[in-house]
Amino acid sequence: xxxxxxNIFIATVLLALVFSCGKNSEQTGxxxxxKTATDYLGRTVSxxxxxxxxxxxxxxxxxxLVYLQCQDRLAAVDSLETRDNFFDARAYALANPDxxxxxxxxxxxxxxxxxLILTLDPAPDLIFKTYPEMGHDPEELQEKTGIPVIAxxxxxxxxxxxxxxxxxxxxxxxxxxxxxxxAVIAFIDACITDLHNRTKDIKKQGGKTCYIGGIAFxxxxxxxxxxxxxxxxxxxxxxxxxxxxxxxxxxxxxxEKIVEWDPDIIFIDCATMxxxxxxxxxxxxxxxxxxxxxxxxxxxxxxxxxxxxWYAQNYGSTLANAYFIGKVLYxxxxxxxxxxxxxxxxxxxxxGKAVFTEINKSFGTMIFKRVDL
Length: 373
Prior knowledge:
The protein contains 14 helices and 13 strands. It has 373 residues and is an alpha/beta fold. It folds into two domains: 152 residues, Rossmann fold (3-Layer(aba) Sandwich); 161 residues, Rossmann fold (3-Layer(aba) Sandwich), CATH 3.40.50.1980. The strands form four sheets. It has a five-stranded parallel β-sheet with strand order 5-4-3-6-7, sandwiched between helices. The N terminus is likely disordered.
């Protein structure tokens, strides 16, 4: 009889444990609850139901967290976020100066430090990682830290826009911010549709040829650095002098090609101003005799725009640049647009703060103006 009672007791305890574990795996909003998610690499990852302490590893990853208004759950940042930079065009960071005071978990561009991560207090319970091919492999990082890692595809606003949206939705699903993700996606789509609608009839008539120079790529570069598929040109139906057919969007062209194309209008990406003063695009246009022969230089049709690549593509700045470029090329179609105010409207929605003036000040207030040559 005693053995029977003992067996009943053991069975009851085991049943209670099984029920408790099942409940934790299914219920939401409770400590200890877990769920699974499939990331960009096809990995099925078990992660906390409500992650409270997050790390964003890789270029642009933290931008997504700010778009979703989850920066209050940030446990630590990479080294770039704590630097005091004379030049800065990262709207998400300028809107959140407190990032500089957070602990560091590793170096920029996904160069994570597992040992540092394990010393953080509070301990992170989830790591998001863009550009997973850089730095630690997500699976390796997960094994070394014991923290789930979700790989994301950063995407872009053109051919890879759906990858951008898919990653934003995945992060939102994990962070319980689905409504905010859909609002961000709807806002971006509305801006792009508006730009297309303002210029769709003008596109059929052709237009002046334009060139964008000085685009950064893992650091500042000169006039020869450009994009064959520069989104603001695509959104406004602008004729891109560097559109040479198939091939990578980002290219470095020869000086001879720029002279051969002889664009009507040149736009300078202000990221170039980080270069050596005698190597940036503005200096080149002022001092190189070959560039002095260009129509755009002779007519003064050279304008400065917000940096496009700054720790991955800056989506808000890309849209703001498109409105400015539309205003320069088609003033009647953009008569109601004040580019500086439009930029702040975009930043306010995406990152929660109007930061155009702050960005512009970093670059000597030259943005959205003719460049003095």
